[in-house]
Write a structure and sequence with these properties.
Distance between the termini: 32 Å
Helix content: 25-40%
CATH superfamily of the largest domain: Isopropylmalate Dehydrogenase
Largest sheet: 11 strands, mixed
Oligomer: single chain
Shape: globular
Number of strands: 11
Structural class: alpha/beta
CATH architecture of the largest domain: 3-Layer(aba) Sandwich
Number of domains: 2
Order of helices and strands: EHEHHEHEHHEEHHEHEHEHEEH
Length: about 325
């Protein structure tokens, strides 16, 4: 997968170290090592606790790694495999400083390693996750509308709601927000090499409600949003029954699938099919930000922290996609 990374452009990709009580620092160093050997032309800037990150490198490679680091200082000790306010603070500072690099034009994209939301809260940062924080950092006065896109090489989904209880996600479902989600989803098309993506909107109720037999949300909320999206020139369709739509959207190339993106109405509706496809190549991207951001599609894995068992594959894929998206964004901006 790494041989598809573009050549050096003069701008780096900023990578956060993640929660130091989990596998974040380990997979960051492993990804750096793999990419250094396979694609040495790629510029990476790793943001986090320099002393910790250097301790995870072999002595022979510490000098090369140090040249890539942006030190946020030490907040340790960091208890491995445990939720810790020190680790929450360290990971939070890595995200804010890496975001500043991107916002100030010193990096072309942001890639984040996994954090623990409770650790953030224990450190006094009560954000539901990266997505909401990054929207705030992008514009504290008027945060942009953002959506989470999860992707593997075979499937791409965009979430209408993110970190909400299921009851709240259903009660807050509305045509205006869903139309916005469909519209934001379309912006990912050029980044994926698909100028006009075919967007399927998943239904909420079984069998897409069977003409109202199993619920009214399809007719009352979802169908009007799709109709408005189509009137705006977006290739949206549905609502499609959620038990079959992902099969129709599965495939590595447009010729292998009926849809290029699936809009999902709540968190687990989209995350389950993505993770069933394999978290090793799963990537989380934030749509709607003024900069590129991708992330791993897994958590801190406290159970294997410090055991040298964690795979960097999802992080490497996130870096690859960040590079691809950055190239596509520059091409878009260069058009007259």
């Amino acid at each position: 997968m790494t041989n598809r990374l573009q050549k050096k452009t003069g701008h780096s990709i900023a990578i956060t170290m993640g929660d130091p009580s989990g596998i974040g620092p380990e997979i960051v160093v492993k990804a750096w090592r793999a990419l250094r050997h396979k694609t040495p032309q790629l510029e990476l800037r790793i943001v986090g606790d320099q002393a910790l990150l250097l301790s995870l490198a072999d002595p022979s490679e510490q000098a090369q790694l140090a040249a890539c680091l942006v030190d946020t200082g030490s907040r340790g000790p960091y208890p491995l495999g445990q939720i810790s306010p020190a680790s929450g603070q360290a990971s939070f500072e890595a995200v804010t400083q890496a975001t500043q690099l991107v916002m100030q034009g010193h990096a072309k994209a942001l890639v984040t390693a996994p954090i623990h939301k409770t650790a953030w809260a224990m450190a006094g940062h009560d954000w539901p996750g990266h997505t909401e924080l990054l929207a705030h950092l992008a514009n504290p006065v008027q945060p942009p509308a953002v959506r989470m896109m999860l992707s593997t090489p075979d499937l791409r989904v965009v979430l209408d709601s993110i970190h909400l209880p299921l009851s709240a996600a259903i009660s807050q479902l509305n045509t205006t927000q869903l139309l916005e989600t469909i519209s934001i989803s379309q912006t990912a098309g050029p980044w994926l090499g698909i100028p006009k993506p075919r967007i399927a909107v998943a239904a909420l109720n079984p069998h897409a409600s069977e003409n109202g037999r199993f619920g009214q949300e399809e007719a009352r909320v979802i169908e009007p949003a799709i109709a408005k999206a189509r009137a705006a020139g977006i290739l949206a369709s549905g609502p499609w029954p959620a038990d079959t739509v992902f099969m129709k959207a599965f495939g590595k190339t447009p010729d292998c699938r009926d849809f290029d993106l699936v809009v999902c109405l709540y968190h687990d509706q989209g995350l389950i099919p993505i993770k069933l496809g394999g978290i090793e190549q799963g990537v989380n991207s934030t749509l709607g930000l003024p900069f590129i951001r991708t992330s791993v599609d897994h958590g801190t894995a406290f159970d294997i922290a410090g055991k040298d068992l964690a795979s960097p594959d999802s992080l490497i894929e996130a870096i690859r996609l960040a590079d691809q998206f950055s190239q596509a964004k520059r091409q878009e901006q260069s058009k007259p």
